[in-house]
Amino acid sequence: MSETRKLKTVLFADIAGYTSLMQEDEKNALSLLNQFKEVLEENVLNYEGEITQYFGDGCLLTFDSGTKGTECAIALQVSFQNKNIPVRIGMHLGDVIFKNNNAFGDGVNIASRIESLGIPGVILLSKAVRDQIKNKSEFHLVSLGEFDFKNVEEAMEVYAIANRGLVVPRRSEMKGKLKQKPIGKKIGKNLAIYLGSAWVVMEAFNFFIEHYNLEPLLLDILIIFLVFGLFSSITFSFFKGRWNKKAVILQMVIGLLAIFSTGYFIMNPLKLNPRSLRFITLKNNKSPLRNLSSIAVLPIQNNLPNNQNDYLLAGLHDGIITELGKLNKLKTISRTSTLSYAESSKRLKQIGRELGVNSILESSLSPSSNGYVYRTRLLDTKTEELMWSSEFKIQVSELPKLFDEISQMVAIKLNPGAIEDVRVHEDINPEAYKEVLKGNYLLQKFSKKDLEQSIIHYKKAIELDSTNIEGYLGVAGSWIYMQQIGVVDPKIARPNIFYYGEKAVEIDPDHWLTLGYLSYKAFSIDYNYEKGIQLTKKSLELNPNNSANRSALAHLYMQVNEWEKAWEQMWYAKEIDPLNPQVLAFEAIMYMNENKYLSAVKLIEKLSLIDEESDFVKLTNVVKNRDLGNDKEAIESMKKLYLDATIDPVTLNKFIDREYEKTKDINLTWITLLRYLQKIDYQKYYPSNTARVLYSLIPPGYDDDLFFECLSQMANDRDPNMPYYARKDGNPLQKDPRYAKIMKNIKLW
Q1: What distance in Å separates the CA atoms of residue 121 and residue 118, rounded to the nearest whole number?
Q2: What is the CATH number of domain 297-427?
Q3: What global pTM score does this model have?
Q4: Of 424, 500, 434, 435, whose CA–CA distance to 469 is shortest?
Q5: How far apart are CA 433 and CA 470, in angstroms?
Q6: If both were cysteines, with which of 348, 465, 625, 651 could 429 make a disulfide (CB 3.0 to 4.6 Å apart)?
């Protein structure tokens, strides 16, 4: 027989699941097949079609007209459904080769591919057939998208007839003779899409956390779910079909693990910081530092023959930072945060990124025949290019003038507008200045021994120069620190603080350090926060890059419930001194006062790595362990608090252990301990804020009289920690008449 080629509308139909039917019930399967053929033979000729070929449970029909072919397909499918014969139909318009009563060609192959996508009750069409009938109002068509068929070069769009009584399949139900993409490429594509989407979600989430000052733990929870979502995406990519049984089981396991992990990390917070996970730095227009030139002064390289001049290196480093910090148009990183880069092998670009600065001042100090040689150079952190370098031969007495010259040169190079803020130092007593440097060096160690030694050096500076304001305020500051860390009785510290502080006021009431003292006096003794705010702001006008004053101002705003201003100042303090223990401690306290406890825990953990011996860390570890239900750890944290704060910590710690063993009730242990501490004399003095922390651990109802005893005593002593103790939000004891009576003459807010 000769071979002929014709353009035909090809209809391919078969019984879905026929092989399984044959295995289950051969007689029933043969009956369905006979009915299938009967329906075909009854209808096809009515629509000018031809039954070209049978293929077991399937059949190939051809039509000269696309319209007639579609009408026939609808009639066939309605009949099949009436007889409960599960048939799927696919149609295509293309070349068909007829030879020896058989049909071949692309038209046949593509119709077969389209039919394989179907489910019982469906009629699927290629775009070629759709174009033939699209203007026929009796046919309702729905696009199902494009499909990549086996042995077909280009993807083809497939349509379903949506007339009444016909089935329109969901894309997820359509599984046919499609190209199988390599699993590696499929997983890679899905991962790329997932990771990109996850990044966008995390950036958006991060923005809301920072912009609205939300709980950072929310970011941790999101990250947990994004990580498990990654495994979920891989599972869907690996298994064929979204509802594959193995895939569903794995998804359930992944979901349970995500929930379990979230619960675990809520109790044991991840050490993550939203800012550390940022890929994009969002611009905060409220930041006072935005668009300013910025600088970090790295620790000075010591080329001196011995370590006897450590105070000189520290003083030189601190002095340069202090003077640069007074330039209003220059963001200057504080000394605490730059010390971690001593002898660092990191490149300037990396240091610049970590500290958020665009310039770095490197320097060294070497001996000379009659003094010292100070060499310095200013570098751009982005290009690592040298911007300025110089060498100075100096004596200790000449350091202030050196600071002036460096400040002027940096201002000229980085921001000429800042040159107006450079202040020229007057001549000072060189020996007095040397004692001040030694005092400053010891003051920054924050231990009782070093603070006591710093006072000796500051007093020597005063003896040598009775107008040395830094000497007077150094003595006052040392006493303030000893009082705050709880190694000296406030009744002893306070007269010294006032005496030396007032001497500084007599000499220069407008010095930035003096203003800091006056602010401390206003808010910590008089509880006049508005005055404290004004004085601190005035001090910051003279030295805008002082992180200690910035964090103090944040707390003052917090005390008057101006939280937006409080966080603005805290972000400022963190930007110029991100590793300062005082800044981190103040931020943790702010989180505690906002009831964002888990955020505070993160900062305490970070602070522990920087300053493990900090009394603040010890105290807050007591709170953390108590709230987590770790009674024994809370007891141990409390015992550590007394190692340096009491003369006889061993006896005190045995007392704590004994009381806890008696009751197994940590609240009763706190009460007994506090009652005991009230009876001991000042020689066994405990930290001034211990009473507040101890009672804050005790739920109302255990010993309410004790609360009012502590509150009354703190009010009488004008304890600077009283505001934190008295304003504990949600404490029902604030409604007690005794509370109003004690607070009557004290202006806290």
Answers
A1: 8
A2: 3.40.50.10070
A3: 0.60
A4: 500
A5: 9
A6: 465
